[in-house]
Amino acid sequence: MPRTPRCRLGATFLSAGLALAFLVGWAMAMLPKAVADEVPPTAPFAAVQYGTNGCIEVGARDTQPKPYAASDDYDPADHAYPDFGYDPASLGFTRTSGTNSCRYNFRDSTGTTVIGSAYCVEWGAGQRTGTGYDPEPAGGIRNAGYVQRILENYWPATNEPAVPSTSAKAANRERSGTVAMAIHYFTDGIVLPPDYQSAALYEVVKKIVTDVLAAGPAPAPADPTPTIEGPDGGDTGTLIGPYTIGANATGPLTVTVDNATAYTDAAGTQPFTSGETLAPGAQLWLRSDTPGAARIMVTGPVTAPLGTRMDGDPAYKVQSMTTTGSLPLQGKSARTIDIAAADPPRLASEVSATTLTAGQPVTDTFAVSGLTGPATLAITLFGPLPAVNDSCSTVDWSGTPPVARRYAPVALTGSGRTTTPEQTIDEPGCYSFGATLDPAVGDDVSHAPGDPLETFLARPRYVPPVLSVTTRASAAKVQVGGSVRDRITVTGLPDGRTLTATVSLYGPLTPAADGTCTGLDWSAPGIPVAKRLPPLVIRSNSTYATGLVTLDKPGCYSFDAEATHDALTGGEVPVGHGLGLPAETVLVTAAPSPSPSPTPKPSPTPDPRPSLPDTGDDRPLGALAVAAFCCLALGVLLVAGQRRWTNGHRRA
């Protein structure tokens, strides 16, 4: 197991690497060979990003710990990967949103056939399946050399790293996800949570970073776009060239020339029609009688090498990616040629990006024309100055602006183009390049800061808020025939982003022995589906409710909301929320039976006795005799009483 580099050893490696990078950059700047300009992605695109090819979850669920983002001044190339269980506060890390860490598929320009895969190099950028991408020249990726080393030494270029799983499908997920997280450490300063759910996978990521830091950065890949090699400028009325077109191409190239007449011979007798094709390596010469900027644009097939930066359609905010292998792609390139009247020397330049994020590198390319002898070019990067309304257009560069870097002077022997070494921008704000050309004969030519082509805005690195999806059923217990719905609460969804929740109701399962739904296994295969509800498309943070579902069978039910989103890389992978959780579980009981009506009891049947003959009465004879006796006695009493009353009145 390789040892983690000590701080002193890491600093020594870093110093040596920076010195070597500076010397290589100086030597490259002095070469007469020139390369094509970077062309932003444009339709028709070379490839389409479509789907994933292996992911691990990194805080994608609400129940999982969230990753952390290092501060802007924390350069991962200078620091070993933190140990499992690290203290984020002591390192100045900020908790950020979780997602899936993935490797992505690329399809051909028609979007039908998978041609390769790539890893994301921007954690905070969105992801959108079906977006067109174009290859771009090397540069613009933070710690690009370390990322290139990962791509060359790990999955899928090799079978590294070793992962816990043995099945091919699970091992692909773990390799793809851990390699992606190692890349995000170098490009974005993103670190797995200190209490990540898999300590084994945490150690896999840490080992990748440790080994890559020890190996050092790898060289940049070859240009994945058609090369255009030739002089940076010339004088009006003269043939300027030759320009060698697409020597690295694999097939015919479509070439467009603006603001100049093109020829296919050095004598200028064989005109070339703009928009026609040329074979790889063909040459052109240009002529213009008017001062200005001529432009050569080339489109054609090139084999883009492993590590090619792929940029998405600028109409969408999507992640940039870097390829895991060589791909046959249609590349686009352009060259601007400065055509001017002779005398004096002219100095023009253009910054590599007008906006970037703190922590990303920047370069500036200076084109010197009309120089007939030796000269020295002194370049200075000024800034930062505060932006005005998130723009540098009205910033005042007069006076004495702060200096971010003074570059070593560049010795020139004639007209040509030179590019500064990459400079990582750590502080947000407005920056601008300035330069002074000091020819051996003649006056200095100054290029003051503030020119829009020389100025760029560095924005703070975006740390996405924690995206949270919580779900709760509308009732925990209902009777058969009752209705329930699911409620979904979303927080942390950035403006302009969309989350789609697809809710299903699973069940019924037989309740547990105690009559509740506690402890049931909702992960078993073949769980019945009671209802699949229409997807909810969510564009703001709030609570949303599904339609009602009527439950006609007793048992245990549970909602599950599968969520996808375009807020972060990996968000297109569905993640379930709630299945089996108490808040999403519903117990359906049978309706109580109605109370039974009392059953009338029959009167006891009297013992049979002989009826009085011919009377129709079945009462006993004894009862009739008693009644007759009572009537006779009453009569005797009435008669006696009458006699006493009569005698009394007579005496009176």
From TrEMBL:
The keyword Transmembrane applies. Keywords: Membrane, Signal, Transmembrane, Transmembrane helix. Residues 593-611 have a biased composition (Pro residues). The chain crosses the membrane at residues 621-641. Residues 589-618 are annotated as: Disordered. Residues 1-29 form the signal peptide. This is Uncharacterized protein. It comes from Streptomyces mesophilus.
